[in-house]
Amino acid sequence: MVDGIVLAGGYSSRLGINKMSIFYKGEPVIVHTIKNMQKVCDRIIVVTGYYHKEISKIIQDIDSVEVVYNSNYQKGMFSSILTGIKKINNDFFIIPGDYPLVSETIYKKLLTGNKSIRVPSHNHKLGHPIFFEKQYRKLLLNTESDNLKSFRNNYDYEIINVEDASILFDVDTKNDVNKLKNRE
What we know:
Blueprint: E1 2-8, E2 23-24, E3 27-28, H1 29-38, E4 43-48, H2 52-59, E5 65-69, H3 77-85, E6 91-96, H4 104-111, E7 117-122, E8 125-126, E9 130-132, H5 136-141, H6 148-152, E10 158-161, H7 174-182
Parallel strand pairs: 1-4, 1-6, 4-5, 7-10
Antiparallel strand pairs: 2-3, 6-9, 7-8, 7-9
């Protein structure tokens, strides 16, 4: 079994509106991220924060998804990761909710790796999602690190090369929104 954690707690400050609710191919960005993850994950935890009510409403009818509110969302993404980690017991993926183009193929390729932490790479750039075996749950909850990258860098992780640049594409700015809309 594999669980998924989708991070959706931020302010979307660079964009000025809730980026998770931007429509792409008829559905909000976060819905695409969840549906792609559902193809390989048995259960998905969506961690909300600033836009809790709006995101909860957007995804309320999606099966096998649990919404968890991070009351410390103002402390940043790592606080949302820790909130989500508390709800899982299996191997897991972590992905920000604004990565709508990451396909089932990427998830499956990460599952074929050998090390207990696996990170996708495209043209020598690391991206998302990140895979962790379940023993890292406890280590994350007890870490002194304050971000996922510094935590990951304390361990021997595997880089999985992929041919798909979607692992590098998130929706942070109006320019990113335009790039996404041009794909429709």
